[in-house]
Design brief:
This protein is of the alpha+beta class. The protein has five helices and 13 strands. The protein has a six-stranded antiparallel beta barrel. A hairpin with a 2-residue loop joins β9 and β10.
Length: about 240
């Protein structure tokens, strides 16, 4: 009797394994299974236009060590609007030099980014606040009456390495499982990538080749496109 039960269980387990197939995970939801099967598909030119897709090229990018500090717009120096940054009492002040590239963001304009360079650093710490001061000018004019506006200053300290990178907006996924959509004319392919260094705008990726085209704006919508060719879907609709 025990042998019969054991044989039945063994047969059932073999059938289950064959049904699942290689790599199938019974714990995945139907949506996850559909997304995993979505490796490549095609769109018509009209559909690409309607989605408003934008793309970027995989290219080498130099990643820098950066220091991010709070700042305020100050017009009391040299009669110009300068970004006045504050460095907390630390060794970071020794890394900041005149001429280093910076980027600025203002709290009141989160979608706007200014760029510029360090023009002066204060070597003496403020005895009361225990802060060092650094000043940077922008390549673009700050808003009129900008004095007193607060934000952040990101200072490029030294290059870390050069690596292939794509805009952050091209990256999809989470928890270490990331992918991008690579475009070849009207054909799209979902490609898994590994990420490394990251800035506000660019992220290092492994798994792509230099010169490939990745979807940036509209990449999220592509996650919900059927794995079946859209051309086939349209033909099916026409037959109806």
């Amino acid at each position: 009797m025990k042998f019969i039960i054991f044989s039945g269980l063994l047969t059932l387990s073999m059938i289950s394994a064959a049904w699942a197939g290689d790599g199938h995970n019974h714990g995945n939801s139907a949506f996850e299974e559909n997304q995993n099967s979505l490796q490549s598909f095609s769109l018509t030119e009209t559909q690409i236009h309607n989605l408003g897709l934008q793309t970027a090229t995989v290219r080498p990018f130099e990643f820098y060590e950066t220091i991010i500090i709070p700042m305020i717009i100050d017009t009391m120096h040299d009669q110009n609007s300068l970004a006045h940054g504050f460095v907390y009492e630390s060794s970071d002040i020794m890394k900041i030099k005149k001429g280093q590239e910076v980027s600025f963001t203002l709290d009141v304009m989160p979608g706007k980014k200014f760029s510029g360079k360090i023009v002066r650093t204060e070597e003496m710490i403020d005895p009361q606040s225990r802060l060092y001061s650094v000043y940077a000018s922008s390549n673009l004019n700050f808003p009129s009456n900008a004095q007193g506006l607060k934000g952040e200053m990101s200072i490029k300290i030294s290059p870390k390495k050069k690596a292939l990178a794509v805009p952050v907006s091209a990256l999809q996924g989470e928890f270490g499982d990331y992918f991008v959509f690579v475009q070849h004319n009207q054909h799209f392919e979902r490609v898994d990538v590994r990420v490394g260094q990251k800035t506000d705008d660019m992220v290092e990726v492994e798994g792509l080749q230099e010169g490939e085209t990745v979807v940036t704006l509209g990449s999220y919508q592509l996650r919900y496109v059927s794995g079946k060719s859209v051309d086939e879907d349209e033909q099916a609709q026409e037959k109806k």
